[in-house]
Task: structure prediction
Amino acid sequence: MADRSVMDESSDADLLALVADSSTTALETLYHRHAPWLTIRLSRRCADPQIVDEVLQDTFMAIWRNAKGFTGKGEPAAWMWGIAVRRLVDAFRRRPPSSVLVQESDLSVVESAEERVLLGIEHGALGGALETLSPDLRAVVQATILDGLTTREAGRLLGLRQGTVKTRMMRARQALREELT
Amino acid sequence: MNTQPWHLDESLAERYATGQTGQTLAASVEQHLIGCRACQGLLGRYVDARRHDQVFTGVIERIQAPRRGPVERLLRSMGVADSTARLVAVTPSLRSSWIGGVLLVLVLAQIVAHSEPVGVALYLALAPVLPAISVAAAFGGRADPTREMASASPYPMLQLLILRTVAVVGATVLPAMALALLLPGSTWLSLGWLLPSLALAAFIITLPDQLAVPAAGTLSAAWMGMVSTGWLRHSDPYAAVTPAIQFVSLVALTFALVVLLVRTTHPQRRIV
Amino acid sequence: MTTIDARDVVHTYGRVRALDGLNLVTDVGVTGLLGPNGAGKTTLLRALATVSSPNSGHVRILGHDPADIDGRLAIRRTLGYLPQDAGFPRGFSAFEAIDYLAILKEHIRASARHDEVRRVLALVGLQDVSTKKVRTLSGGMRRRLALAQTLLGHPDLLVLDEPTVGLDPEQRIRFREIISEAGVGRTVVLSTHQTEDVAALCSHVVVMDHGRSVFAGTVPELVAQARDRVWVDDQRDDRANAVYRLGDGSYHHIGDPPAGVQLVKPTIEDAYLLLAGPGSDASAVV
Result:
């Protein structure tokens, strides 16, 4: 039970079951497996590494406490990201970030034709349509549709009022509809 | 599980990790990462290993850290060193038996008290010093399964006993007060031990470690001495409950509380 | 180097002389105390752990006198003690239990203390259950937990009272391994009923009986005590100190052999029974 090398072979769901049974070794295995991509994904939404680390720590604390709450349905990684992004929203509520979010450099990167193909496969027409959106609208779509946040949470994450998020979502939907038809 | 038609290659992983992919591509990568353990693994090298380990150490520390109850937090906020606060705060988990013991003794004293004045004197003498006796009982019996190990540790057990006594004063004073109201004589007189008892407790907690034990012993003895002299000389068990002694107690209590307050506001100057 | 030097130690409980002129000298390494119940093993170990004081005798532990306040404190600062009935409040987590003992052992700074608690929990293989409540742990795990607290702060002296009692064979082997590793470079004194523990663990062995040491030496020296004094015969010979029936129907004898019997190679158990066995009261054996 305490052997990490055995756990390295276990599925995420099995590890979560062990965590629910208070196994710190299982939590450690999960951490080494998932912390890197969670860190990077969080870093893309928050430029302050200190906040990212705090959020990551809070996330794994929440995983430890709520592992019983993972029903076994759905992807454990998606469940973990759901926790992480909400912790990030909480962190922003406690301490409004000075410089946050999608770095401008991100937006200026021109994607290659090959990547457009990848995207097309991944998101179908939506991927292409997303690109036609302005960065403002795209950020809102990402927070709500892709990260699964409510408009209120998205507002906190993006430093916008809830009303603004709603308006932008409306505009984004309209733009996407036009693009996809 | 992994039925994804494409995977991250080294260069895409690097660009994603270093923030050089556009938002739509990044979103795509992120959706993919949710379900693909192999690609999750690709990102390990882009996080700082030390930072990564530090965060987990923090998680483990928080998970394992002993839960701090209200008593422990209160003690710490009063400037008690955290290890000492911990030792005192865990007393309740060691004391299942002795709260009952305290009540029993007080009830017995209460019964005796009705054959005044001996009983009243006994009650007045005992009530303020009972917490110390009850903690001693907890240490002497089987109540503490760690006792044998603790005895072989360098920590001065007598000091621990006194510290815990102070902590349990709060828990014992209330039932003692309730019983005092049943004593013959004026309510104010029968509660006359309360102020000295609180003053004693508060005063001890302000003292440096090495003075706590002798001071507690001396002051308890002094109180019992006063009650018995008062009773023997004047056959009045309440003789010790003079305005003078109340006043002295009040001054001592105030002084102790001020010291504790100062320590709360200047936490770096910890003495206990 | 002599680490414990105890001479003519007497400890009485009322009229019972639990230690009756006991002598014990140990060195760095693992010393095992063997002896029947009531031989005084626990009394001796409690005296070595400074939790009880003998009535008379000379005791030096790591150069300190346990009768002296400063000496006692110096010993306690480098002592790990596993009492026979070591327990923890059942509501504590494994971590909290060890953390509590660590505070008593003067590990004041919380972060360093918590690191030390993690270290000793890992040594006994309990790191994975650190957050579990003591009451949910198995008996073997609780015993390991009690052993963990002895290792706090790298003590020079370990005093272990029947560390392997109540463990199943697998746990017993694991426990021996931990103790054996812990015994490198420090003095370990342990008591046991199990001669296999002694064979597996101890560089030195002391056989106690009636509050005295009746043998002190190495394990081969102990076994040599029974050389030419163990034999197997088809007939039971009650003149032997100890006799028991073997699975094949023959009888295993320990004592002074009559002429012409088939001698066999002695074991630690044979030597132990010869020294501390009931002797005249052979019927009580086995």
Notes: The first helix of chain C runs from residue 41 to 48. The interface with chain B takes residues 49-51, 73, 76-77, 79, 81-83, 85-89, 91-93, 95-97, 99-101, 103-108, 110-111, 113-114, 117-118, 130-131, 146, 149, 159 of chain C (CB under 8 Å). The longest strand of chain C covers residues 2-13. The CA atoms of residues 44 and 245 of chain C lie 34 Å apart.
